[in-house]
Amino acid sequence: MDKLFVYTDAHAQGDPGEAGIGIAITDKDGNVVEEIARLIGRATSQIARYRALIEAGRAALAYSPQSVIFFSDDQHLVNHLNGVFATREPHVKHLLGIARGVLDNFPQWRVNFIDHNVNRQASRLVEQAFHDHSHARLTREHLELRLLARVGTLDDARLEELIEFAERLEKRD
Known about the structure:
Elements: E1 3-13, E2 17-27, E3 32-43, H1 45-61, E4 67-72, H2 75-81, H3 90-103, E5 108-113, H4 120-151, H5 156-172
Parallel strand pairs: 1-4, 4-5
Antiparallel strand pairs: 1-2, 2-3
Helix pairs in contact: 1-3
């Protein structure tokens, strides 16, 4: 691919708290090439935004573009990456070094600031990551409740059989 546009966003619930990233990669015609919506564990919103950009860079590398323009609604991140100002925070310096290392693999790259309202696609993906995680957690809780209800109706012999069956299932993994 000749040119890619990469939109990134991230935030944490609690700051620090559970953090999610959203990445939308489009070609020069605006067609979506790839979308990433994922939780990344506990982080601050600032750290999550750096990690989103790093992940976005790694994902974009797979397409071997000649030019990549990254977009973020985090002015500090954009200014740090473009060398407008430096940071004294060691953890941010570390992430900045990783991000620049990834970006320097592209023949041409730049990072632009965009308004949060324009960055809706990446923001939507962050929300999707949280929603998907919540849905999966609720589904698991529902399955566990169904299992508990069934176990409560079993006599001791059947319960022993169920335990043996569960142990065989665990060994297959």
